[in-house]
Amino acid sequence: MGATRVRGAALLAAAAAISFLMVASPGLAAARSTIVVKTAKNAKLGKTILTGLNGRTLYHLSVEKNGKFICSDKTCLSFWHPLVVRAGVKPAGVSGLGTVKRPDGRRQVTYRGGPLYFFVQDKKRGDVKGEGFKDVGTWHVASPQAASSPPPPPTTTSGGYPYPR
Q: Which of 3, 97, 121, 138 is the most exposed place for a label (fewest CB within 10 A)?
């Protein structure tokens, strides 16, 4: 009868532990919020823009919406670097952020449904060299504000993608 009593106590303890975990930690299965985007006033554009934590400008491609990726080949990705997070991370920092699964399986941060990218030619805080760039769509600086003035002229070359300077 001693072995039965020990097994019963062990089962009771296991059930209690499982119940405690289910009640005390419902957030364990939920996504963990992590700040990955911030805002900055950009003097060149005269408006507030979205940046990564490194202060570099974030962009979106006009034709990428609702999980449809245009920038997925090696050439495009050599100029436009996706802002990605690990699985289970909920991006935070500004309202309207989310994630979408890229064709390569990584989780890309989105703003109002548009995937966010860094431009390779932006070397320092405040650079907006990708604004208005046209290829398969038009690249724009991600901003929580509506544009108050026309964007600067596109920085394209006749070959489509600009060559790094």
A: 3
